[in-house]
TrEMBL record, chain A:
<keyword id="KW-0385">Hypusine</keyword>
<dbReference type="InterPro" id="IPR048670">
    <property type="entry name" value="IF5A-like_N"/>
</dbReference>
<dbReference type="GO" id="GO:0006414">
    <property type="term" value="P:translational elongation"/>
</dbReference>
<dbReference type="InterPro" id="IPR019769">
    <property type="entry name" value="Trans_elong_IF5A_hypusine_site"/>
</dbReference>
<dbReference type="InterPro" id="IPR012340">
    <property type="entry name" value="NA-bd_OB-fold"/>
</dbReference>
<protein>
    <recommendedName>
        <fullName>Eukaryotic translation initiation factor 5A</fullName>
    </recommendedName>
</protein>
<dbReference type="InterPro" id="IPR008991">
    <property type="entry name" value="Translation_prot_SH3-like_sf"/>
</dbReference>
<comment type="similarity">
    <text>Belongs to the eIF-5A family.</text>
</comment>
<dbReference type="GO" id="GO:0003743">
    <property type="term" value="F:translation initiation factor activity"/>
</dbReference>
<feature type="domain" description="Translation initiation factor 5A C-terminal">
    <location>
        <begin position="85"/>
        <end position="154"/>
    </location>
</feature>
<dbReference type="GO" id="GO:0043022">
    <property type="term" value="F:ribosome binding"/>
</dbReference>
<keyword id="KW-0648">Protein biosynthesis</keyword>
<dbReference type="InterPro" id="IPR014722">
    <property type="entry name" value="Rib_uL2_dom2"/>
</dbReference>
<dbReference type="InterPro" id="IPR020189">
    <property type="entry name" value="IF5A_C"/>
</dbReference>
<dbReference type="InterPro" id="IPR001884">
    <property type="entry name" value="IF5A-like"/>
</dbReference>
<feature type="compositionally biased region" description="Basic and acidic residues">
    <location>
        <begin position="1"/>
        <end position="12"/>
    </location>
</feature>
<dbReference type="GO" id="GO:0003723">
    <property type="term" value="F:RNA binding"/>
</dbReference>
Amino acid sequence: MSDEEHHFDNKADAGASKTYPQQAGTIRKNAYIVIKQRPCKVVEVSTSKTGKHGHAKCHFVGIDIFTGKKLEDIVPSSHNCDVPEVTRTDYQLIDISEDGFVSLLTENGDTKDDLRLPTDDQLNAQISSGFHDGKDLVVTVMSALGEEQICALKDIGPK
Amino acid sequence: MSCFFGGGLFTIMVASKALEGQGENQESAICTVAIRLMTQILNWEFRGKLAVLGKSRASTLSSSPASRKSSEQLQLWHDLLVSPAKVTWILNFYEHIHQKGNAWLDLPLSVVVRQLIVLMCSLNGSIFPTDGAGTQEQHLQRLLNCIISWIDPPEYVISAVLAGTSESEMLDGCRALLAIATLCSPSSFDQLLLSFRQTGTLSLLSSLTCGIIKASCVRESEEPSWTYEALEVLLETWTVILQPADLSQKVPLPPSGIEAASAVFQTFVEFEMKLSESSALDEDDADDMAAFSDEAREDRLSAVALIARTVPSVSLSLLTMLVSKCFSEIRQSLGSETTTRCLEQLHWLTILSGHVLADPGEGETPTVPESILAVSAEPATHPAVSLSFALIDVAQQSLDATFRTTLSPRMMEAIVWFFGRWVETYLMPDHAGRGPSSTPSGHEGQEVSVGVLFDGRNALNAAFGKDGGGPAVLEILVRVALTSLTAWRGEQVLQEYVSSRLLPALVRRRNVCVQLLSMGSWQELATVFARQDQMLLSLSDSVQRALSGCLCRSAQGLANADAANQYVKDLLMPMAASLAEFSGRKDLATFSQQPNVIHQVSCVLERLRGAARETIPRTQKAIFEVGVSIMKPLLVFMEIYKNQPSVVYLLLKYVVVWVDAEVVFLEPKDTTTVFNFCVQLLSVYSAHNIGKVSVSTSRSLQNEAQTEKYKDLRALLQLLTNLSSKDLFDFALHADENPDVAQVVYLGLNIITPLISADLLKYPKLCRQYFTLLMHMLEVYPEKVAKISPEGFSQILGTLEFGLRQQDVEVVNMTLSALGALGVFQYQALCKGDDGLGTQSRTSGGDDVLSHFLKLLMHFLLFEDYSNDLVEPAADALLPLILCNTALFEKLKQELVQRHQDVVSQERVSTAFHSLSKGIEITSTIDRSIRRKFRSNLFVFLNDLRGFLRTR
C-alpha cells in the first residue's frame, strides 16, 4: 500500500496535479473546480449578491469526480478559484491480476501496473467479462490532483 | 330573456323580504341566485347570430343587417337592461344593503349585486339608441351616482378599510370605474361626475389613486394586499384613458385631468422613494435578480410612465431634481448606510426615468414620446435633456476609479439598462422622412402648431444629435461599457446587461456605427478584444459571444465591403492565429489539457461563434476566411479534446452557426471545402464516441454525461440540417456545378446514426430533429438512397422501423412520410422499368425491404394501438407500398381471410379489403385525388375490420 502512495506523490511532483487559478464568475456548469482540496465537477452554479448593493458571489455545487460525493462552496465572483487539471489517458488493457490490479500498455510501450480495477461494479464487470472474452479493450484513466482512476472503457473490436 | 325578466320580477318580490332578515335567510339565498342568473345572462356572448347587443368588452359592434325581429328584440332588451326604472331599482336595492353596514358587504347577495352593477357599467353597443350617446351617458351617470358612495370620499373610504371595513365594495368601485373609462373619452369620463358635483371624475380617480398609493405604504407587509389589487385596477383605468386601444381615438386630457395626473405621479414617486429607502438594506435579493423582467413591476412602471408623459414638464423636472439630489448625496458619501439608501433610490429613479423617457425598442424603432417632443424649450432647459444629462453625469462619474467604489453593481446595472433603452430613442436619431404628421394622432399634432413640435425636436437634436452633443455622449457610453466589462470583475449581471442591451443598442443603427468606428474608445475596445487580453477573457461565455457579435456588427458603419472585411479580419484573425499556433505545438498533448489553455480555447470559440452569428453580407467574406483558416486546428482540437466534452460542444456549436451563416453565400468551390470539413469533423467525432461506455461513480455525473452527448448530437444534426438547406438556395444553379449535398448529408447521417442510441432518442427534441432530417432527406432525395452503402441503408431502414414504434405522434407521422416517399420513389421506378432502390431493396434474407414495411404497417394498423390522427399519414405511406407489391398484399389478405373458420367472417374480411381498393385506378403516378380516395377508403376499412379482427 505504501508503494502506491509513494507513487502518487511522485506523480504530483511531476506536475500532473497542478491547479490553475480562474475567476469564479467564469466557472460554468460542467467545468472542474477544487472544493475542499478535492477535484469536483460543477453540477450547479448560482449567483447572488451580498445585500442589494453588494457584490456578486457564486455558489458552487460540485461532485467529487473520484468519490461521487457532493461538495459545496461559496466564493465572491471576482475572486479566483482553483481549477484542477483533469486529464484522461487511454491505455490498452493487457492483464488483470488476481489481486485486482490491472496492467496497462502505455503509448511508448511501457506497462503501467499501479492501478486497481474501478470500484464501480458495472464498469468492473464489463472490464472483467470483456477481458475474459478476449476482447480488445481500451480503458480511459482519469487523473487529477495526483489521483487516478479508470473511468471509461471502449471496445475496439475482438482480437 | 323572459327568464331575465321573470327573474327580475321574482327578485323584486323576494328582495324586500331578504332585506328584512338578518342576512342569512332563505329569501336572500333565492335573491342571490336570481341575481346571479341575471349576471350570467349579461355575460352571454351577444355578438352571435343576432348581433344585437354589444356587451362590455365585446363593445362596439357595427350595425349588422338588423331584421325587424331583431330590432324588436333590441327594444325589449333595452327596456329590460337600461330603462331608468329597472336600473334605479337595482341601485336602490344595493343602496339598502350598503346602509346595512360592514357586516353585509361580503354576503353573497351583496357580492352578486355589485357584480351585476359593474357589468351594467360595461354595457355598450347597439342596445343604446343612436342619439349621440346621450342615453348611454345618462345610464352611466345613474350608475356612477350609486357607485360613488363606494369610493367617495377616498380618504374616508380608505381609512375605513384600513380600520377593518371590508375592502370588497371599494374594489368593485374601482372595477366599475375601469369599465366606464373603457367606454368613454377622457373628457366625457370627466363630465360624468360634473353633472351632479363640483369636481370631475378624473379628480376623483386621481385622489382615489393617491389614497391607495399612500395606503399601500402603510400596509406594505401584507401580501397579497387589497391595495395592490386596487392600484392595479386604477392604473389600468389610467392606461385606458391615456392610451386607448385604438390610437386614432386618442384625445388630450381636459385641464383637470392634467392636474389629476400630475398629482398621481408625484404621490407615486414620493411613495416609491420612501419604499426604496426602507428596503435598501434588505438582505433577500432573490426576487431582485429578476427585477427588470418582473412583469408586474414592468406593467406598473409603464402605466406610471404613461401618466408621467401627460405632464412631461412636471414629471421630468421632478425626476431630474430627485436624481441630482440623490446623486449629490451619494457623492458626499455620508456613511455607508445612508449611501446605500440613496443608491437604492437613485436605482429606482433611473429605472423609472427609462420608462418615462423611452419605450422599449424590441423589434421596432422607438421614437421620442410625442408629449415630450411637444415641450418647447431651449436645448439647455428642455426637461428631457436635463434629465438625460443628470443621468449621463452619473454614468460619467462612474468612470472615475475612486468614485466607483461608492457605486454598486446594482446601480451600474440600472445605468446600463437605462442607456440601452435611451440610446435607441435619443442618440443621434435618424430623421429622414419622418415628419411629425406621420405620428398616429396626426390631427391632434396639427392643432399645436408644427413649429412647436419642431422646437422640442430641435432641443433634443442639439443635445444628442450627430452635430450636437451626440458624439460626446457616445464616447462616455462606450467608456462606461468598457469599464463595466473590465473594472467590475465578476459582476455577471452587469456584464450581461452591457453585452446584451447597451452594446447591441449602440451598433444597431448604421449612422451610430459610423461614429463609433471613428472613436478612440471603440478602437480601444476592439484592440483589447483582438489581442485576447486577460481582462476580457475573464468574461462569461454568453458575454463573450455578444461582445464579439457587437464588435463585428459595427463593421456596417464602414463605407465599403473591403474595409468592413478588413476590419472583421483584424478583429478575428489574431484569435484564429493563436488557435493555429496552439494546434501546431509539439507538446500539444500536455499543453492543451491545462485548464488555462482550455479556458482560452473555449473563449476564442465562443467569440468566433458570436461573430459568425452576426454575419452580415458585408462581412461574410471575412468570417468565411477566418473559418477556413481554422479548419485544420479545429480538427486537431476535436481529436485532442475528445475527453473534454465542453470544448467539443463549443467547437460543434461554432461550426453549426458558422455553416448556417455562410451556407447561403457559398460558391461551389467553397461549398466543397465546407462539406469536406464537416464530413471530417463528423468522422473524428464519431471515431471517439462510438462504442464508448463510460461509467461514473455518481448518478448525477452519469446523467450529465448523457446530457452532454445529447447536446452534441443535436448540434451535429443541426449541422446536417444546415447543410441540407444549401440546396434550397441553389435551385437556380446547375446541379453538376455544386457538390452533392444529399451525398454529404447521407454520409453524415451514416456517421452519426450509430451514435444515436435508443436511450438518446428518448429525448423528444433530439428524436424529432433526427426524424425531421430523415424525412426531409428521403422526401427530397430518395434516388440517393439507392446509392449509399448497404450498411448505411439498413441503418436508415432500422431507424424507420424504430420511428414507427415511437410514442410521439409527430415522430410516427414523420416516419410515415419518409416511408411513403421511399415507396413512391420505388413505385415510380418500377413503372418506368428502372432499378429503383435496386439491390438495396433486398435484405440479406432476400426479402424485399419495402414488403417488410408493408407487412409491418398492416400489422400496425390492424392490431396495434395508435392515434386516429395517424390514419391519414399511414394511408399515404401504405398506398405506394401496396402498389409496389400487390402480390404480397393479396397474400396478406388471404392470410387474414383464412384465419376465420366461418363463411360470414371470411365474407366480411374480403368485403372490407374490397372496399379498400374501391375506386383506386392504378396509374404510373399517384396523384392527389387517388391519395384522398385511398385515405377515406382506409378509414372505412379500419372501421369495418379493426374492432372485428381484434375481438376475434
